[in-house]
Every structure is written in C-alpha cells, then in structure tokens.
Amino acid sequence: MYLTTQGIVLRVTDYNERDALLTLLTCGHGKLTVKARGLRRKNSPLIAPCQLLAYGEFTLFEYRGQYTINEAQSLELFLPLRRDLNKLSLGTYFAQVTEVLSQEDLPNPELQSLLLNCLYALSNMDLPEYQVKAVFELRCACLSGYTPDLFGCHVCGSQNPERFDLSAGHLECENCRSPGSAGIRMPVSPTILESMRYICLCDPKRLFSFRLGKEALKSLSALTEAYLCTQLERGFSALEFYKSLHIR
User: Fold this and answer.
1) Under DSSP, is residue 87 helix (H, G, I), strand (E, B) or coil?
2) What pLDDT, in 10s, does the model give residues 130-167?
3) Within 102-236, where are the H helices?
4) pTM
5) How far is residue 84's CA from residue 168's CA, in Å, rounded to a whole number?
6) Sign of CA dihedral 80, 138, 202, 25
7) Residue ranges of the chain with pLDDT lower than 70?
8) Edge-to-edge strands of the sheet including 170-172?
9) What are the structural domains of the chain?
C-alpha cells in the first residue's frame, strides 16, 4: 500500500552502509519511522528531502507496518538556517523536543505548525535567537498539557508575584510558598511575565509579535528552557551543544 504525506525530518540514523532510518513528523499520521534506501550513497535523489529539518512530500510504501520511502520531494529546506551553526543547532534542539512530544499514528498539526514556524523564523526573520527559542519552548509546553498558571500568586493571589515555580508551573510571591513545596523557583519580572502570558495565549500567527530587550530575552529564554526541561524531566544534547557555542 502506498501513502503520500507531507512531513518534516526530525532525525536521521544510519541503518547500514547504504540505507538510513528517518523519523518524520507527518501531517496526517503523526510520527513515523521510515527507511530511506540508498540515502547514504553520494548520488541518491533522496539526499535533499531526507536531510535533518527538511520539510517535504513523501510517498511511502507500507508493508506489514513498516514504511519505505518510494519518492520524496523537498518543499522547504530552510537554507539560511543551515549556513549558521548556532541556528542549526537550535533547530536541531527543536526537532529533538518535537520527537519526544509527538506520538506514532497520532496527528499533531499544532506541534508541526509550531516547529515549521520557528524554523522559518530562524531562517528568514530578523529575530533574536533567544526570542524564537523562548516561543518554541513555552508554546510546546502549552501544546503538551503543561500550560503554566500565570495569573497571580498561587498562595495569596497577589497580582505582583516575583517567582515562578518550575515544577508546579505557577507563580508565587517572594515570601510565599506552598506547604510542602520543594520545587525550584526562578525570578520573574513583570515584563517577562507579560511576555509569557502573551506566548501562551496569543494567536499562532502572532507568536513573534512582541519585543523585549536583549537581557530580558535572555532571562525569558532561561526560564522557558528550565520550565520545559523540568516538565519533561530530561535534557537535550543539541541544547547543550547550542549553549556551548555561546560560552566559547
């Protein structure tokens, strides 16, 4: 049986000397693992559409629950992103997060759209990397059921809380703490809090329509990163590599 679908390559793994396995996030079938025969050969016609972070149209042959690529055509390669190591490593981090959050045979068009929009923003929009990173992380958390409570202190109800609990996903005043809570809290300024509310609630088409200064964006990015990794209870190799590039 043949299946034609659009998808983005989240991971490429060598299978043998000639072939590779791809993890795709597809429009109608969720996450799929597919074999790309001959991909590792120099003149393979699959090289462009089957590279990491490529978005394309794939014709798959399905036999006994296993998929093999019959044809593939590139729709978007995000070429400017591939010329910048910082952006490429950040995009790879986005792909790793997406792979963790997506499921086999369960379509997630909102997550796919978020990934594509963030890759496009890195490639073609003159936006700070920290802004794109923060948008991706916090919106990913929301789409995965980890929407934080950003409206008032969880303990006293104050509208001017100064801390964000990474484990509980709620706000607290500096001197407030839920009984028995052992979670890590990070400082959050009114400006950063307003930006977090915007990212969580805005229309997907206006995700990047806010502005912060460089240092505020850096703080926002650190907070959204810590929140997402805390909720997922794991780290990401591409994220660590991306961060290493900024401390050289």
Assistant:
1) helix
2) 999 999 999 999 999 999 999 999 889 988 899 999 99
3) 109-124, 129-143, 190-201, 214-232
4) 0.94
5) 36
6) positive
7) 178-181, 248
8) 149-153, 170-172, 163-165, 185-187
9) 2-76 (2.40.50.140), 79-245 (1.20.1440.120)
